[in-house]
Design a protein that fits this description.
Layout lengths: L1 E10 L15 E10 L2 E10 L10 H13 L4 H4 L8 H15 L18 E2 L2 E3 L4 H13 L4 E5 L5 H14 L6 E5 L9 H10 L4 E3 L7 H10 L4 E3 L9 H11 L3 E4 L1 H4 L2 H13 L3 E4 L6 H12 L23 E4 L2 E4 L12
Parallel strand pairs: 5-6, 6-7, 7-8, 8-9, 9-10, 10-11
Antiparallel strand pairs: 1-2, 2-3, 4-13, 12-13
Helix pairs in contact: 4-5, 8-10
């Protein structure tokens, strides 16, 4: 018989994680841990990592569902297609937990060249908000560290300063050397956005994520139809948990890209559905983390490695915490790698 428990942990960033919605000083995640009574030493672990301010679910929802799941473990598969659809972070935790349990608790969820350490996943270097000089230094560190795609958060310190930072990169590197992405996290309104898009296009920016707040579908539709720089939807995907809702968004807004966070859209199955729908419409996509700990990041990364991606993914967030779970994952030289010779240290989950 399968038994289960859950625990809550708060992770602490190495530095203030600045976004247009305000700084992130700490991150709370929940772990679902399951084992067979006949082999209690082999534990499957999944992570629920909702994102306050982005997710449509709340910590109370997560705790309630995790408690229910631990009280009764024989109906998890059924619940993944019923009530857990609307609590996507918990749904993903169940997916991870069951797959890890099947893998004997090894955390090798999708065996591949990636998990064998023979290949890496291309990733972008992420530049968090800070003052202008700090951001300039962070850009330099990402480029010198080997990232050929750099994504910069914008919408918090002033557009002129942010554009000056991007211009500085463009004066030194052309588009064949460095790909520039920006992420606004919905920082601009309908009146501001057209000018922002025009100025970004002049700097040959690859794309902008979520220029206006989520839910402004008519505004976003107009922007996508007229923009000189490709637009990627991010937060607008969150909370659309049925196929019909996803089809409606893509068919009406017609974005150029979508950015998929498995932890926030409901896991691997939901991610596959978004990719399938996007491909059928000629819409590009990439996958990013949602500031999970190593457990969730590993689940996202191993899955992504099976998709034969060629453009940079947003999976380089494992180093942001001082107290992350030690794991075989390592981001270096523009790649996320898995080092099978390195052991997992799960002592913080005991």
């Amino acid at each position: 018989m399968i038994k289960a428990r859950w625990i809550e942990r708060t992770l602490n960033p190495r530095f203030e994680l600045g976004t247009s919605k305000g700084p992130i000083h700490a991150r709370t995640v929940w772990y679902l841990i399951a084992w067979d009574e006949e082999a209690p030493e082999l534990k499957g672990i999944g992570e629920a990592a909702l994102f306050p301010g982005h997710s449509k679910e709340f910590p109370a929802d997560v705790k309630l569902k995790l408690t229910e799941l631990c009280e009764r473990t024989d109906n998890w598969a059924q619940r993944m297609i019923t009530d857990l659809v609307d609590v996507p972070s918990v749904r993903f935790a169940v997916e991870q937990c069951l797959r890890d349990l099947d893998a004997g608790g090894t955390k090798t969820l999708f065996p591949s060249e990636f998990t064998l350490g023979r290949s890496g996943i291309p990733i972008n270097g992420l530049v968090w908000m800070g003052d202008k000089s700090t951001m300039k230094q962070r850009i330099r560190e990402q480029i010198e560290g080997g990232c050929s795609t750099v994504k910069m958060k914008i919408g918090a310190i002033g557009l002129d300063d942010e554009l000056a930072l991007l211009k500085g990169v463009r004066q030194e590197y052309n588009t064949s050397d460095i790909t520039l992405r920006v992420d606004a996290n919905g920082a601009f309104n309908a009146q501001q956005a057209p000018d922002v898009l025009k100025r970004l296009a002049e700097l040959e920016v690859h794309s902008i994520e979520q220029p206006v707040p989520p839910g402004l579908f008519e505004v976003m539709e107009e922007l996508c139809a007229t923009t000189p720089v490709p637009i990627a939807l991010d937060e607008d995907l969150i909370g659309l948990n049925t196929r019909d809702a996803k089809v409606d968004l893509l068919d009406n807004v017609k974005p150029h890209w979508i950015v998929i966070k498995p932890s926030l859209v409901g896991g691997w199955g939901a991610t596959h559905e978004w990719i399938e729908l996007a491909k059928a419409r000629g819409i590009g996509w990439w996958i990013t983390s949602a500031l999970e700990s190593s457990i969730g990041l590993n689940a996202v990364a191993q899955f992504t490695a099976t998709l034969n991606v060629s453009i940079a993914q947003g999976l380089g967030t494992g180093k942001v915490y001082t107290d992350n779970i030690p794991s075989p994952l390592l981001a270096e030289k523009g790649l996320l790698r898995y080092r099978p010779e390195e052991a997992w240290d799960l002592s913080m989950l005991d």
